[in-house]
Design a protein that fits this description.
The protein has helices at residues 2-26, 34-42, 113-120, 139-143, 178-196, 199-205; strands at residues 44-49, 68-78, 83-95, 100-106, 133-138, 154-156, 158-161. The termini are far apart. The strands form two sheets. The chain has a four-stranded mixed β-sheet with strand order 2-3-4-6, sandwiched between helices. It has a three-stranded antiparallel β-sheet with strand order 1-5-7. With 212 residues, the chain is of the alpha+beta class.
Length: 212
């Protein structure tokens, strides 16, 4: 009996330890600091966006599956009982203003931001109600010719209403609050750098970093 309990406890805690080690080694996020975040945001620029095409699976002809709204999940932890993810609400389309494919990322904010972006980007919108938007992009990524294809869209990690006094993209007119917007942008960049950017692209942005 005691021997059986010992086997059970050993198997239980042994399995938990194995899951922890695997999660720590293979799923651990990059150790991103304010240095990496500030470098990314300070090397960013903004562009006025007036139109975003609505792309749905009901379109005829059926659009490429890589376009439109997509939730991207990254596994952060797993065990024999549960899993944990960080999720990004994204929208991918061809931007005429930037002349390339772009993908908006909403990671730190909860809610249907892709739907809000589509509403603000409607072609025949009433501009007395719906202002244009500002998209923020990293200048180094924009200058990198590997970005901008349908397989590797230019990441857009921050966006806001061009006229928050008319209409804000966020509740309680948060688009008019610089401190809130900075917090949101910084957190979005942090999560993007921790989980979503590919290793080789991270090294391009931070060649001096020892972080993988």
């Amino acid at each position: 009996m005691i021997k059986g309990i010992g086997y059970f406890l050993g198997a239980t805690f042994g399995a938990a330890l194995v899951f922890f080690i695997i999660s720590f080694i293979f799923l651990r996020p990059r150790d991103i600091t304010d240095i990496e975040i500030n470098k990314f945001t300070k090397n960013s620029d903004k562009i006025l966006i007036s139109f975003i095409p609505l792309i749905t699976s009901f379109d005829i002809p059926v659009p490429d599956e890589r376009l439109g709204i997509k939730n991207i999940s990254k596994l952060t932890y797993f065990s024999n009982r549960n899993m944990a993810y960080v999720r990004a609400d994204t929208y991918t389309y061809f931007s005429k203003e930037l002349n390339k494919y772009v993908r908006t990322y909403s990671i730190s904010e909860i809610g249907n931001m892709s739907g809000v972006i589509i509403d603000f980007g409607e072609k025949d919108k009433d501009r007395a109600i719906w202002p244009d938007m500002y998209f923020y992009y990293n200048k180094e990524q924009n200058a990198d010719p590997s970005y901008g294809t349908i397989d590797k869209p230019l990441p857009i990690l921050h966006f806001k209403s061009a006229d928050p006094s008319l209409r804000s993209m966020r509740k309680n007119n948060k688009d008019a609050d610089p401190a809130y917007l900075k917090k949101v942008y910084d957190e979005n960049v942090k999560l993007y750098l921790q989980y979503f950017i590919e290793k080789e692209d991270f090294k391009k942005l931070y060649p001096e970093s020892s972080i993988d």
